């Protein structure tokens, strides 16, 4: 632990695509380079950005979600994020105030997290196509929510010195400090695909890319001013106890698929399993490995099986081992894992690949449609996620669709609503000891 309590900052923007991730990674790496014990965090449901934060800082990065986490869990996870750190830099998602219609502080918006912990906001302002008018956006952000403190702005996509002067003229008129100005630089953009950035573990030359971002921060951002702006509080980490209210682990020795096709597991969920006494044993389906036979449950996370469908279908040792495991022990699949537990998976080219056949569902990535949003699920039977009647909160984010019919009550995993309580019907499947759905678990409701 450090002698001084950790402080925080929220890097946010008025909308998606403004450059929050680039600026956050640049700040994290540059501050680490200075010898600061800095940690990252991500507001809202996102599996990909925290792995980049961890690579930039050498410390775990956690998700902070004011809708899907109750206050106790949110504080516990924020405490874990700040454990032994001097500064937590949280990255927002979407726009600063974007969330669901809910009571104040529980909307899932980035602003809720900043308000709860008193973290000043550093606004990333995309000024492409604007000059003095960009100040109006910053002014609106400063005025919209009286709970927040706007520490200043970092201009992004600045075209020229003249462009910067014009933008700064507008901001000086309303008294908002400029903490930095990042030039338009396509070479610094991280590669993307359909669910966001290419994963940190798959990004070529990641360390070199992060170092270039740190160089950018040192040249373009007033790091001393950013540090001075930090404030608020970070909750004390909880020692020797579960991080908030979570479902119990599905097994004491839990086999978790982990490779390029199966990687979407929330750090707070694994921390909760470990705190409850479970041991997590990773294995790789893409390497044709089977769930270790000395495990008593198996978890197939989400990820990108649609990009590796042929290889998974050819991994007969893995698929046979999965089927044998299901005969005696529980298996649960989330999103991509659910697709692999099904009968078949159609890839982007329209080729159909046989999967494990443990659940009566077929999925297709060729028929792409965005499914996105918070979900509240009420379990219909006892299983790996808990007892019948248990309410869980999580989210969906996928482009694949089920091409088989809606499950009946005898085989559906849960009844699901959206964040505002609108019924979405039965979702997921269960058969014997096997269950799965497109739902990503965050906590209890």
TrEMBL record:
Reaction catalysis annotation: hydrogenobyrinate + 2 L-glutamine + 2 ATP + 2 H2O = hydrogenobyrinate a,c-diamide + 2 L-glutamate + 2 ADP + 2 phosphate + 2 H(+)
One GO term under biological process is:
cobalamin biosynthetic process
Q: Name the pathway.
A: Cofactor biosynthesis; adenosylcobalamin biosynthesis; cob(II)yrinate a,c-diamide from precorrin-2 (aerobic route): step 9/10
State its cofactor: Mg(2+)
SUPFAM superfamilies named among the record's database cross-references: Class I glutamine amidotransferase-like (SSF52317), P-loop containing nucleoside triphosphate hydrolases (SSF52540)
A molecular function (GO) held by this record is: hydrogenobyrinic acid a,c-diamide synthase (glutamine-hydrolysing) activity
Quote the Gene3D superfamilies the UniProt record gives.
Answer: 3.40.50.880, P-loop containing nucleotide triphosphate hydrolases (3.40.50.300)
CobQ/CobB/MinD/ParA nucleotide binding domain ranges (all copies)? 10-194
Alphabetical UniProt keywords: ATP-binding, Cobalamin biosynthesis, Glutamine amidotransferase, Ligase, Magnesium, Nucleotide-binding
EC class, as a word, reads ligase
Sorted alphabetically, which HAMAP family does this protein's record hold? CobB_CbiA
Name of the protein in its database record: Hydrogenobyrinate a,c-diamide synthase
